[in-house]
Fold:
Amino acid sequence: MGLAKKVEIRFACVGPQKQKGSLASVFVEATVRKVNILSKLNLLLFPGSKSYPKNGALKTFTLGLQHAFAMSCATILVPLLTGLDVGVALCMAGVGTLVFHICTGGKMPTFLGSSFAFITALATVVGSEEFGADKTERISAAMGGVVAAGLIYVIIALLIKIFGSRFIDRLFPPVVRGVGIAIIGLNLASAAINNIQSNNGFEMFSAGYYWSWILALITCLTAIILSSYGKGMVKMSSIVIALGVGYILSMILTLTGIAPEGLMNLDKVGEHAWFEMPNFVFPSINLKAIGMIAPIAIVTCVEHVGDVYANGAVVGRDFTKDPGLHRTMLGDGLATVVAGLFGGPANTTYSENTAVLAATGNYNPVTLRVAAVIAIVVSFLGKAIGVVETVPNCVLGGACIVLYGMISSVGLRTLVENHVDFTKNRNLCIAAVMLVLAMGGAVIGGPDFSFSGIGLGIIVGILLNLLLPPIDEPDGKGLVAHSVPEDEIVVEKDK
Structure:
């Protein structure tokens, strides 16, 4: 039974108050009218809602709140690690999710959040005076790169619409995808360790240095244990819970005076009002920043394809056909463009989202849109943002040891699951060149426009795959070791 009908029946049973002109009847009529308008608007913007079972209002809100909580960890980590505004990141995650649902007709249950793939490039641009005299200018330059990354999504969506999705496999074979994902995680490794060892400016081997490592290891071990042995939402929220454990311990050590001063700055909470506007920043054109940030979208596009297939497998629908891969890619791209226009990190479809869907068994996209609205509302709560900003760098670093390592591990898993044969020098060469260029700090281009780091490694990997002639893969599955002809095999007899 719909909400409007329930409201109508409930108030129809209150006796004399149901009379026309009474306060109750006016309230009922207004409520029913608003509910009907919202229902019609939902079906107009998200026609796919009709194909999913309906939940009650309370259940939908509860599940949406749970989903928003599960997605918030990764979303807020990106601005904390890159220097962007936490409130803007949350707001753009919510807005981006709604944009995605509009592009896909509300047919796919997906929440978009801040992409980890862009952390190194964003942190480099925001943290370097080469891109601006003050932080706002540097964020503006970085946002130009984010908008360009979103436009790459849009272009690829157009190509998928024209040529179909097979060309993606041609451009991004497993060796390029796997190594590309691996180098993203490897590039982030130093950031996790630096967060621990340079926490709030503590000197090497000082008391603050050792306390930073203790808290980081406790956070890391908590995440490992919960991720490995937890079940349901505990497992899905392992990083969030680990951060909470590290945060509480840091606060206790700070308030009791056990840890040295400077471990945690609780004054940041008082600097925020209860309600405040996120620090929106508009993009500017900086070709060098665009060259560093935009090419990373090539790999995240491939990640997007994998997330769409995984999401469909859990829900039991083929989203590559309906709404279509071109529409999901377009939604991701436009969401990233919108984020870049207002100072947020690039958006992406979260694989964590698929895990939460599997854990809850609720696939109604309305739940995800409720989660998006909750994220937008929280982004305007200054005190909540202040609490997030007080999380010590060492606690973040401890959680990131697991998080960044998992990204690299996903790349390795991609290589193994797709049976990439590294006995073939072609695959070895592609992987070797990608790794060295991405990790070695190579820069190709000019003073105004250049490719470097992850973006350079990925582009070169794509070019090498297209230029080097393919090699017939051996029969059989799995990684293939150097083989010996059958007639040369000598079997030793037992002595």
The chain is about 65% helix and 0% strand. The beta strands are 112-114, 347-349, 443-445, 450-452. The chain has a mean pLDDT of 77.
